[in-house]
């Protein structure tokens, strides 16, 4: 919030579009999001979603489509936007984004399953939502969503799948090459951070050139594959990317907030405020489409009988600890 306030205040003094240029600014934002997604992919471990993998899948499929449809209905009937504009705006609203989710998780510190579920959804959903928004925009621009009977809807779905496949294939192939290069010590350690940053930018740019918004998918898969391989260690790269992510998120918040005009905020009116409140209900409905499995409880027994250690089952909801007052095991 402080960064947004500072950015809004800076925007009253200087316009970033005039100083940097709109094209350069948007290119910087795109590359920054790609780097942030790569860092997010490096934190995704498959073992984290052994219990909630089905929930994550439903959130990024059924939940995403539910958010898109309900948001489009609200934008049309509540705000009064035309159907084409409502469809594009609603597609943009399906993206939760790691720039917000990851910092919130660090601050709130939820339990293990909730934290891993929110992190996976925020990172994986970002490239899918971005590709969806781009395809919806192209469809609306060329009148492709006028009639589903003409096959335009299926064509858009096919384009979405092709983009995901191309981005995933490029990201996975580059990750495998990187692992082999690191195993053979083709690059000294002191150059790896700079090399990874250059590689992410290159993969993002090339894939985006081949498939619009495919770069987000490629860098996410690149980070995901590298995070789950067991042949080389990348802790030093992850630490560098975490520091870089904090810097990029801070700059992005200030830059984007500085582009917001006071007149735009005042023109929102009560309909805009009502729409924001309704979006909370949309999020609740979307999450309800992917219910969490029942929370397994820790085995309760006298902590003193086992040297103050708690015995848990494999699916325990978060770590357990001894409750001093009741002398029993409770989830943390």
Key terms:
mainly alpha, 2 domains, Na+/H+ antiporter like fold, two-stranded antiparallel sheet, globular, 70% helix, 332 residues
Descriptive notes:
The structure is a single chain. The chain is mainly alpha-helical and about 325 residues long. It folds into 2 domains: about 1-290, Na+/H+ antiporter like fold, CATH 1.20.1530.20; about 295-330, no CATH class. Helices cover about 70% and strands about 0% of the residues. It contains 13 helices and 2 strands; from the N terminus they run H-H-H-H-H-H-H-H-H-H-H-H-H-E-E. It has a two-stranded antiparallel ribbon with strand order 1-2. Helix 3 (about 20-40) runs antiparallel to helix 11 (about 235-260), helix 4 (about 55-80) runs antiparallel to helix 13 (about 270-290) and helix 9 runs antiparallel to helix 10. The radius of gyration is 22 Å and the shape is globular. About 35% of the residues are buried.
Give the % helix: over 70%
For this structure, the CATH topology of the largest domain is Na+/H+ antiporter like fold
| Integer tally of domains | 2
The count of DSSP E runs of length 2 or more, i.e. the number of strands, is: 2
CATH architectural category of the largest domain: Up-down Bundle
CATH class designation of the largest domain: Mainly Alpha
Major β-sheet profile: 2 strands, antiparallel
Large-scale geometry: globular
Can you tell me the residue ranges where pLDDT is under 50 for at least 5 consecutive residues?
296-319
Order of strands, widest sheet: 1-2
């Amino acid at each position: 919030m402080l960064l947004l306030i500072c950015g809004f205040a800076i925007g009253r003094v200087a316009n970033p579009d005039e100083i940097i240029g709109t094209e350069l600014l948007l290119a910087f934002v795109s590359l920054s999001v790609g780097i942030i997604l790569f860092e997010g992919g490096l934190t995704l471990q498959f073992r984290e979603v052994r219990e909630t993998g089905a929930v994550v899948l439903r959130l990024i499929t059924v939940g995403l489509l539910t958010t898109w449809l309900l948001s489009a209905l609200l934008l049309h009937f509540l705000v009064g936007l035309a159907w084409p504009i409502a469809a594009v705006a609603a597609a943009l609203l399906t993206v939760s984004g790691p720039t917000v989710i990851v910092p919130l998780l660090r601050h709130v510190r939820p339990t293990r399953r909730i934290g891993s579920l929110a992190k996976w959804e925020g990172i994986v959903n970002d490239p899918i939502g971005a590709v969806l928004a781009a395809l919806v925009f192209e469809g609306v621009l060329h009148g492709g969503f006028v009639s589903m009977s003409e096959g335009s809807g299926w064509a858009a779905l096919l384009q979405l799948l092709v983009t995901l496949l191309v981005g995933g294939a490029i990201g996975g192939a580059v990750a495998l090459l990187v692992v082999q290069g690191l195993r053979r010590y083709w690059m000294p350690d002191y150059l790896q951070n700079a090399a990874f940053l250059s590689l992410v930018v290159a993969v993002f740019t090339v894939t985006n050139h081949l498939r619009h918004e495919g770069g987000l998918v490629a860098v996410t898969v690149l980070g995901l594959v590298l995070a789950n391989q067991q042949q080389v260690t990348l802790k030093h790269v992850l630490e560098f990317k975490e520091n870089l992510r904090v810097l990029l998120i801070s700059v992005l918040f200030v830059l984007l907030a500085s582009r917001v005009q006071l007149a735009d905020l005042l023109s929102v009116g009560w309909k805009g405020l009502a729409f924001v409140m309704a979006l909370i209900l949309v999020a609740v409905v979307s999450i309800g489409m992917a219910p969490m499995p029942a929370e397994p409880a820790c085995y309760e027994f006298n902590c003193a009988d086992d040297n103050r250690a708690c015995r848990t089952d494999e699916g325990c909801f978060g770590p357990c600890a001894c409750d001093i007052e009741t002398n029993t095991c409770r989830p943390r």
